[in-house]
Amino acid sequence: MQVVEVDSRNELAWMWLSGLMDDLEDRIIACENVLTINPENHKIQLYLNDLKQSQNVLNARAMESIQRQPVADTRTTKETSPRDPLRMAEYLEQDGKYNEALEIYKAEAAKTKDVQTFDQIYKQITRVENAMAEKIKYVSPQSSILRLTSTLPLLYLSLALVQVGLNPLKHLFSYLWCAFPLVILASFLIAVSEIRSRHVIWHRVFREHPDGSTFTRLLVGGMGWIMIVVLFGLILLDSLNRLAIFKIPPSLY
After folding, report:
1. Contact present, 89 and 58 (Cβ < 8 Å)
2. What is the pTM of this model?
3. CB under 8 Å to 250, separation ≥6 — which residues?
4. Domain spans of the chain?
5. pLDDT at residue 221 tops 60
6. What is the mean pLDDT of the chain?
7. pLDDT of the residue at 139
8. Backbone φ/ψ region at 209: left (φ over 0), alpha (ψ -120 to 50), beta
9. Which among 14, 60, 96, 119 would be 20 to 30 A from 102, CA to CA?
10. Can you spell out the DSSP letters for 53-75?
């Protein structure tokens, strides 16, 4: 590596690297660099052909793994099994299949000739490898949505209980309780817009692809946040109203 850093056209150094590198894509790149320097190096050309065959086998295995995945709704087969390899890798990563996703990312990085695209894929590879090294546990998108959805309703419920003096039975028909289902709905919309997952709402409600477009995500998330601001604003106004009429001893609520 030090030799090629000093002399990037050192054919012998690249030939050594083509056999010493652990990663398949790195060996392919080393072979291509040799052929760029010396197109007449037939041994390296044969070796490169063998490496690319191995790469094709890995890609085929990854594709077979995706095709074997059961699809819950046959009407959304196109949306759940995209042809874009990078999107397939993203879906595999969402399903916790890091090794298979990593194989596709590396294969696509080896094929691309665009520097910007390569940098983007390389960032994905680094992120997945770091996740595997740190043994980050896979959490399903559904679990993440459920967890995020419950946060704001619990906060609203706590504030509402404080407003009614921790005695909700005396105020069963308060508008604070009527707004509670709307808080749950708004929190769900925010959670869905934040989680990058193949959620059925994008296809059945908005007729989008399984990830949802950026515009639709912004629209859904914006609607959720507007509802949250309005509903929590009601609690704030109720608090200000109670402070305005507060007396000692306090009057009945």
Report:
1. no
2. 0.48
3. none
4. 2-133, 141-244
5. yes
6. 77
7. 67
8. beta
9. 14
10. HHHHHHHHHHHHHHHTS--S-GG
Amino acid letter, 1: M
DSSP the chain: -HHHHH-TT-HHHHHHHHHH-SSHHHHHHHHHHHHHH-TT-HHHHHHHHHHHHHHHHHHHHHHHHHHTS--S-GGGHHHHS-S-HHHHHHHHHHTT-HHHHHHHHHHHHHH---HHHHHHHHHHHHHHHHHHHTTPPP--HHHHHHHHHHHHHHHHHHHHHHHTTT-GGGGTT-HHHHTHHHHHHHHHHHHHHHS-S--HHHHHTT---TT--HHHHHHHHHHHHHHHHHHHHHHHHHHHHHHHT--SSPPP-
Give the CA distances from residue 131 to residues 85, 88, 106, 124, in Å, rounded to whole numbers and listed in that order. 20, 18, 16, 11
Retrieve residue 159's tokens: 């504030």
